[in-house]
Amino acid sequence: MEEYFVSHKEYKIDAKGRISIPANMRTALGNEFIASRGVGKCLALYPMEEWNAFMESIKDKVPQKDRKTLQFFFSANAEKLSLDGQGRVLLNESLRKQVNLFGESQAMIYGNNDHIEIWNCDLFNEQLSSISEQEVEDILDKYEI
Length: 145
Known about the structure:
Blueprint: E1 8-12, E2 18-20, H1 23-29, E3 32-37, E4 42-47, H2 48-61, H3 64-76, E5 79-82, E6 88-90, H4 93-98, E7 106-112, E8 115-119, H5 121-129, H6 133-142
Antiparallel strand pairs: 1-7, 2-6, 3-4, 3-5, 4-8, 7-8
């Protein structure tokens, strides 16, 4: 069975732009992984297998005009990374600026099933609080889940 990333917690970003990845997420993330822009104002860390599957699904399911946009957005903002000996990742300054993390001393690490997202804490909390229980119930009902 596939291991999913779950939960969220605030973590410190050091002066060099490094952030610790929770110990319970490191194995599933792998030795090398892709960091890219996520949907919304966040960074997304994908295990290599998940990144490849994500890019393949764009290639296979999205018409060329839209595919080029998605590929450009995600790939132009992507880089292959690995954790240091202390389980930290160095976040690219350009990406940190794009998602309101540059100059921040804390970030929210959120396990989003097949990838990890790193958010500005205020933006994460705004996004989380903007979803009502009724909206969730309506979506579950709509898809009969």
